[in-house]
Design brief:
This protein has 3 domains: 3-63 and 70-128; 150-304, no CATH class; 330-499, no CATH class. 58% of the residues lie in helices and 9% in strands. It contains 18 helices and 12 strands. Strands 2-10-9-6-5-4 form a 6-stranded mixed β-sheet. A hairpin with a 5-residue loop joins strand 7 (351-353) and strand 8. Helix 2 runs parallel beside helix 3 (73-99) and helix 13 (330-344) runs antiparallel to helix 15. The protein is elongated and about 95 Å long. The relative contact order is 0.08.
Length: 505
């Protein structure tokens, strides 16, 4: 049996088990009314979990919990229970339709939740714990009703959003008032959608086996949220005082239990697509959980008096130096090719076609491309002056504020091999070229955008490295415990800046 078919059969089996459990829940509730109220509320919780998954998949706000009329008598309550179960089963089917095979985790979690529910109902019936269950139900209901407001407040904190009062709006011109209102709407939409994502995380650690090992209570979650809003979950001041480390080491003890349960997804958490907030993963976690931290104007965070740009990724995938004065690679492609033609002659072949019939370079700005351009062109036809002229023109096209960067010429000189060996003379130093280009990008970034401190985060390991200035970058590039570049760029790329990715090393 093929794996996909096996997976499909497994998923259908999980859904069949859910149907079987639901039948048992109905039967037990019918035989002993003591467990009926508990079952109704529990199924509603499961539906809320399912609805949030659906909302996230559709990128729409999660629906507000339905408030129905309280039924009287066993028959009325059994009718409500049946309706809730039927609705939940339809929602499970919709999850699988929206997520395909990725729905497996959600279905398994729901099955485990329902199995636990049935076990809890049996306990209630056999041990007469109805009174305690009712207290628990009321406690959860009260807590859950206030959760949305807390998470909205936390989302607003993450982007340093402050509501404008009616009096403040009144004092503005009509044009200014319109801009502020639009900004308010976007900020609240961002905060609401972020809150929905966080709510799913907290419900998961409270009600599924995924969080069972952490033994987390509602009180623990409340404490964590209070600490997060105060910004005391992560001590950002101590974190940025060190050049490298593990984010987890700066989490306070009061928040540790909940943080450990959600750290993985929270640090990787991507901000909502809507809302217009310029904030990325890693940066979102520090701004949301840390203090002192404030959202700066250009997507940075401010800790104390200092501003930090955050570049996050995982493994070999990282962030780029996105200076306003650095163009896309495509913008420099013609200059790159023209310079190679001047070196090797008009007949040199510099491009071919990809599988879709689109032009691609034979000599991209990455390790493979530089190795090829050295062996096939520069060793045969170039010298240091020719290579310098070619690289200078290319970089001047890519880095538009190059006239403000006094070190650019020395960087280019250092990229070029000077040797008595005619085959090596005028080639590009394959060991140093990317690091030197990275320093050029940093200088452009710093000059154009005011960026000096850069925090590079690996969201999987939650390690970080801080770059303080150009010399610091030069010292840490390629060093163990420092940073490294990953990949380069292709000349036909019109979407990303002409920059490698930067990751922890």
């Amino acid at each position: 049996m093929r794996f996909n078919a096996f997976r499909k059969n497994l998923l259908e089996s999980e859904q069949d088990e859910i149907l079987s459990i639901n039948d048992k829940v109905k039967d037990l509730a019918q035989r002993d009314p003591k467990a009926l109220d508990y079952a109704i509320d529990a199924i509603k919780k499961a539906r809320q979990y399912a609805q949030k998954i659906i909302a996230n998949a559709k990128r729409s706000p999660a629906p507000k919990p339905e408030v129905g009329e309280a039924a009287e008598g066993t028959a009325g309550k059994l009718s409500i229970l049946s309706q809730e179960i039927d609705a939940m089963e339809k929602e499970i089917a919709e999850i699988c339709q929206l997520l395909g095979e990725k729905c497996e985790g959600a279905v398994v979690n729901l099955k485990k939740f329902l199995s636990g529910l049935y076990g809890k109902m049996e306990d209630l019936v056999s041990s007469g714990k109805q009174e305690g269950a009712e207290e628990e139900r009321q406690e959860f209901k009260k807590w859950y009703n206030g959760l949305g407001a807390k998470l909205l407040k936390l989302g607003q904190k993450a982007i340093s959003h402050v509501e404008v009062t009616a009096e403040e709006l009144k004092a503005l011109s009509s044009t200014e008032r319109s801009k502020v209102k639009s900004s308010q709407i976007n900020a609240n939409k961002f905060a609401e959608e972020l809150g929905n994502s966080l709510e799913t995380l907290f419900l998961k650690v409270l009600f599924t086996d995924a969080g069972k090992d952490y033994n987390i209570t509602i009180k623990d979650v409340d404490t964590f949220l209070d600490e997060a809003y105060k910004g005391t979950v992560i001590n950002n001041q101590e974190l940025v005082a060190r050049d490298s480390g593990l984010i987890d080491d700066f989490v306070n003890k009061r928040s540790r239990k909940v943080y450990d349960a959600i750290a993985g997804p929270v640090v990787k958490l991507k901000p909502p697509a809507s809302g217009g907030a310029n904030i990325g993963p890693g940066e979102l976690a520090l701004a949301m959980l840390g203090n002192p931290a404030a959202k700066a104007d250009k997507g940075d965070i401010q800790v104390g008096d200092d501003m930090y740009e955050v570049k996050a990724g995982a493994g070999s995938v990282g962030g780029r130096f996105n200076s306003d004065k650095v163009t896309t690679a495509l913008n420099g492609w013609k200059v790159w090719d023209r310079g190679l033609e001047e070196i090797a002659g008009q007949g040199v072949i510099l491009r071919d076609k990809n599988a879709k019939g689109k032009d691609r370079s034979l000599y991209n700005f990455n390790n493979t491309g530089i190795e090829k351009v050295n062996s096939e062109i520069l060793k045969k036809y170039s010298d240091p002056e020719k290579t310098k002229k070619w690289l200078t023109k290319t970089f001047e096209r890519l880095v538009t504020n190059h006239s403000e960067l006094p070190n650019m010429e020395s960087y280019i000189d250092s990229m070029i091999v000077k040797s008595d060996d005619p085959e090596l003379n005028g080639t590009i130093d394959e060991k140093t070229y990317m690091n030197l280009y990275a320093r050029l990008l940093y200088d452009s970034y710093s000059k154009a955008d005011g960026v000096t401190n850069i925090i590079i985060i690996d969201t999987k390991s939650r390690t970080y490295r801080i770059i303080r200035d150009s010399e610091d970058l030069g010292a840490k590039l390629g060093q163990k415990g420092g940073v490294r570049t990953s990949g380069g760029f292709n000349w036909n790329d019109n979407h990303q800046k002409a920059s490698p990715q930067f990751v922890t090393n």
